[in-house]
Amino acid sequence: MSRRTRPTWLEPAQSSPEVPEREALPPGNPLTTREGWRRFVGRAPRPPEPLSAEALLALPRATRAARQDARRDYHADLPLVSTPTIQKVIATGRLLVQLNRNQISARRGAIISGMSGTGKTTALTQLARAHELATRRRHPRDPERMPVLYVTIPPAATPRMLAVEFARFFGLEIGPSANLTDVTNTVCSVAAHTHVALVLVDEIHNLNLATRFGAEVSDQLKYFAERLPATFIYAGVEVEAQGLFAGARGRQIAGRFAVVEAAPFAYGTAEQRNAWDALVATLESTLRLRDHTPGTLPAIAEDLYRRTGGMIGSLSQLVRGAAILAIETGIEQITDDLLDLVPLDYAAIRHTAPTKTSRRALGEIATL
Ligand SMILES: Nc1ncnc2c1ncn2[C@@H]1O[C@H](COP(=O)(O)OP(=O)(O)OP(=O)(O)O)[C@@H](O)[C@H]1O
Ligand SMILES: [Mg+2]
User: Fold this and answer.
1) Residue 360 sits in which domain range?
2) Which of 24, 193, 207, 286 gets the highest tally of CB atoms within 10 A of its CB?
């Protein structure tokens, strides 16, 4: 991939305000609630341009601190890059929504499956965000419309727990005496009223079809899928290996759901290396560090691959972490020393070659 075809940001830069407002989602409003989801959809972070050291020092202390806080917040949550996984999920999801629009039953869905940190939740939520924004544009006078519902499967879930997760998204109060049928009926009636068209079910690997509760939760999910005129998209860690397609229930899921694989980036062929380099360059273009010279990160793209094993989650952690340290230390650029200070996940460390890697060794990592 050449520079010209490098991936783009999903949330392009907007005009830079003096001190951008804090945009982080409050912990009390996770994505699995209507408020949290709405806020996520409407969010458009604005990159805070760095001031020169002199201009920064000239600011009153409180303004200076607020500015540095805002810059740290921005770098903790950099804009997303439009990766092949996101593009694949959005294309698949869009097509399924159209195919399902007039189906009265046996609607088709998709499952995003892959290792942890490959961007499954990110792709799932970006698909739904794009769908919701398009729906809002089509129905500007209908603020009650909630085209997306997002839930996660709790560990060791029961069917009632799953139904309560659906209800919680809508902010419905469920009393302890409400039985499964009551909760299900209430959810379905609210979902019909608000025109839910896309249902996201994350952490689907928590569904263990080999257990009684797991099988019952799967049946409950299927029941929701029959009753709600919506497209269901699941995401989970390596679902095939978790037995999601095993047995009679699993075979039915396999017959209705397309699998979109979320894989780490590879580094074997020239094309794969170009794709990784382009990802690094795009991520770098989102940085707002005073003394960072563009091209520094692409120059060490191979080393970044060695450190992260091609996992976008690890790369993102590395770059965001080093950027925050660059602001805190006043170094204002990403250096090798700062990258060394960022704690990485075990999976990435396991992929890291012990000595300076040759291209041959990287090829081996890519095919692991
Ligand atoms: N397209 C992207 N651009 C920039 N950062 C990304 C992108 N996709 C994922 N990330 C970052 O990688 C990290 C992991 O992503 P995400 O949570 O989507 O992975 P996951 O596959 O759902 O992991 P898990 O299986 O552990 O739930 C997050 O910090 C996220 O911001
Ligand atoms: Mg996830």
Assistant:
1) 41-79+266-366
2) 207
